[in-house]
Structure prediction request, 447 residues.
Amino acid sequence: MTALARGENRPAPGDQLTVTVASSASVDVSALLLTEAGVVRSDADFVFFNQPTGPGVVYRHGNGGPDVVQVQTSALPAGIDRVVVTASLDGRGPATFAAVGQLTATIGSGSDTLTFPISGLTTESGVVCVEIYRRGGGWKVRAIGQGYDDGLAGIASAFGVNLDDEPEPAPPSRTAPTVAYPPSAPPPPPPGQHQPSYASQQGAQPVHSDLFDPSHAEVNGLGIQKQGGKMVKVGLNGEVMARAGSMVAYQGELQFQALGSGGIGRAIRQHLTGEGVPLMKVSGRGDLFLANSAADVHLIDLDGSDGLTINGANVLAFDPTLRYDIGRVQGAASYASNAGLFNCVFTGRGRIAITTHGSPVVLNVDQATYADPNAAVAWSSSLQTGIKRNDSFGLGRLMGRSTGEASTLSFTGRGFVIVQPSELPPGGLIGGTGGGQQAGHGGGLFG
Prediction:
């Protein structure tokens, strides 16, 4: 085993290289394929937990051990001049590498091994560990150890990865498309007559039930609409964004595409914050029915003048004309709750369907307003938020069953707050969000 000093380079010990990053703290390992200009050709050249394969490079999650990046230099595209392997703190331990005792990158191939113990980091939360680069028709390895204060997002941005998840959506069309819908259900029978029935086409005895009352019939029309109190129907002639796994039924020709958290930038932020919406895009022509654990459903129309801040676990579906990102809840640092440290922020014009556990109250914030952090579901993005200790106004631990910290979330400004009659923690009956780190990983280069 040969130890490298910072800046030192050696010939690559083989064509098939395994780069292992071991740390005394939990870190995310990634790799970037760079051109001679030092940037990626596209986002496909960024290999990390949410995109584990690239041309000639595979990321493998350690599953309790160190993460690994496999590089086959002969499989790298001709336009790739070097591959950098990075490590970034994942938010589950120290905030900077100054508090990390051990950080070592090891490059192995067969019986030959190079090792680089990385030290001297202070305020950094991300670091480029080593690079594998072309030189004179061959490949070499260099110890780098360059730190970044803004972690994985800073590293990705420095090498040209686009962290803007998608362009601003086009404004909605002024002429709505049309979809042919079945006729409305028949009116209820006059008093004294039998309940409606459903007759079998095979001539069997008709089925009688109050289920065939018009109150249970599907609603008509385009777009996102309430279907009863715990379901939405989307009349589709185009596309809609919906929570992954929320489809309970559909009619017509619809296609479903999993989107993870909706882009590289949001994937990184969701992984670091635990916040986000696991999404699917549904497109085509027909009727889509969505629900989430029989939670109550509510519709909100945004006109573009203000945004909506909401916990990702309460998002069911939204129009593609809306844009969402993951933002910090100001004043709520270090507080984990339904109204957590980070929430989803929706902006633009369009409709969003949200869920609550029980029938909520909508508070008009025209004076100082306080809510149990696990009961506050959503609020106007223009409001100012903060945390107030209940002891400061005599409530102590009498407020809410699950706050634990004897604190309430405060709101000031002009807007509204939606409060559900439940203090369920995130991921309760409504369901939580999933991180990207355990996403399916592709096969390796070496079998």
